[in-house]
Structure formats: structure tokens, C-alpha cells
Specification:
alpha+beta, Jelly Rolls, about 30% strand, 2 domains
Length: about 250
């Protein structure tokens, strides 16, 4: 009887392993997404709607890996006004919990093409209009080129969105605006591995969403914390199964 129970346990373990591997970062055409909530009253939200505004951020990511507000972005006199939520290095802090009331929502692996429209806090059906705040998120991944060449990205967003490759800005869809698309062919890239960082923020009520695709296979960037949680979850599930089987 115990031998039969062990065979059943091993079957369950194998199934759980396959499920975990198939959903782990780095498997398939995916990005690793980090989601946050900007609170109602955040200083960079509910400004005027000024359409797509390029040049709000510098062409390279800051030392902490976030977009840096440009001189123009700090003095913008358009309807959306300057971006004020930034650190001493002028990196945008929309994705930093605790800053100006920003809270963490979730971290998950998202399949590509990414099509999150609408994208509201806690999937509650609305954003600041009903007091739920605004979603800000960023995604990370890697891709490989067998030879030097370019990559085509298709990005659509409401509101701000930026795509960086190897820390360099490739797609600029900034500003508070309705859903706007920006197909872009990258500058020439070398053969080998390249990183992708996609940033997004909803900063105005009524609508919110993002679409992203690429003509190259991208895989989510693994993170030690994510893998640790994955492993601990698997071990916990196996422990529960073993206790139940041995009862």
C-alpha cells in the first residue's frame, strides 16, 4: 500500500514540477512584470491631457535601473506639467513602494504579446475615478540575436510607456494621453544577448492599458527571489501531500 502511495506521490511531484517549470521566469515568450499602485492624489496624476510627449526621460536608464527625468521633463509646461516624483538622481519613483504613497500590487510572469487593456488596480474596473488609484508597472526580459540586426517593437499605451534595450531608450510613448501606438524599429544591435525593460504608468482617470509585442523571442528575466518562492511553494505542496498520503 505504501509503495502505491509513493508512486502516487511521485506522479504528483512530477506534475507539479512540470507546472512550475512551464510557468517559471525564462520559459517561453514572456516578460516578468512588477505591478504597483499610485494612490489617488499622487502628485504626478490627474494633470491635464497633453497627448504623446517624447523627451520626458533621458535616453539611458539611471544607476538604479529606472528612467531618468530629462531637463525637459522637469520643466515641461504642457498640460501634464513636470514629473515631480523622482529621487536625487532624478530617477522616476512611480515603481518604488512607500514613495508618495506607492504600494506594491503583484509580481508575475506575463505571456507575450502583452495585451492588458484595460489595466486597473486590483482589476476593479476603474482607476482614480472610483478611488482605486492608478497602475504603474515595469517588465524585464532578455532576447538573443544570432547575428547583428534590428528588432521591431509594437507598443501601445494609455498613458506613459518607454522601452529600453540594454539600458538605452528605443521606444518613447510618454505623456498623459489616450491609447496611442508606436511601432518602432530599433537601432542596429550586435549579435548576442540583450536586455529589455518596459515601463508603464496610468496617470489619468477613465482609461488605462498597454500592448507590447516584438518580432524576436523574449524570455522573462529570472530573479533569485522569484525562484526561491517557486521552490519553497513546491516543497510545501509536496509536504502536504506526503502527510495526507501517510494518514
Amino acid at each position: 500500500m505504501r509503495q502505491a502511495n509513493n508512486r502516487f506521490l511521485y506522479l504528483i511531484l512530477a506534475t507539479l514540477t512540470l507546472i512550475c517549470v512551464a510557468t517559471a521566469p525564462g520559459w517561453g515568450d514572456t516578460l516578468l512584470g512588477h505591478y504597483y499602485i499610485l494612490p489617488v492624489g499622487h502628485p504626478d496624476t490627474e494633470r491635464g491631457i497633453d497627448g504623446v510627449v517624447t523627451g520626458l526621460v533621458n535616453p539611458t536608464l539611471g544607476p538604479d535601473g529606472f528612467p531618468v527625468v530629462s531637463a525637459f521633463g522637469m520643466t515641461n509646461n504642457g498640460a501634464s506639467h513636470p514629473i515631480t516624483d523622482r529621487n536625487g538622481l532624478n530617477e522616476i519613483l512611480w515603481w518604488t513602494p512607500g514613495q508618495d504613497g506607492v504600494t506594491a500590487w503583484k509580481t508575475q510572469v506575463d505571456m507575450l504579446p502583452l495585451n492588458l487593456n484595460p489595466l486597473f488596480p486590483f482589476n476593479n474596473g476603474c482607476d482614480g475615478a472610483c478611488g482605486g488609484g492608478y497602475v504603474a508597472a515595469y517588465w524585464t526580459g532578455v532576447f538573443n540575436l544570432a547575428s547583428p540586426g534590428t528588432v521591431t517593437f509594437n507598443l501601445g499605451s494609455d498613458d506613459d510607456a518607454w522601452v529600453f534595450v540594454d539600458n538605452m531608450l528605443q521606444v518613447d510613448n510618454g505623456g498623459i494621453h489616450g491609447f496611442s501606438t508606436t511601432p518602432t524599429i530599433t537601432t542596429p544591435l550586435s549579435a548576442g544577448s540583450h536586455t529589455v525593460d518596459l515601463f508603464f504608468a496610468d496617470r489619468h482617470t477613465v482609461q488605462s492599458g498597454i500592448f507590447f509585442s516584438a518580432d524576436v523571442a523574449i524570455t522573462a528575466t529570472p530573479e533569485p527571489a522569484s525562484l526561491l518562492l517557486l521552490g519553497s511553494g513546491l516543497l510545501g505542496a509536496v509536504g502536504v501531500l506526503r502527510r495526507k498520503i501517510n494518514l
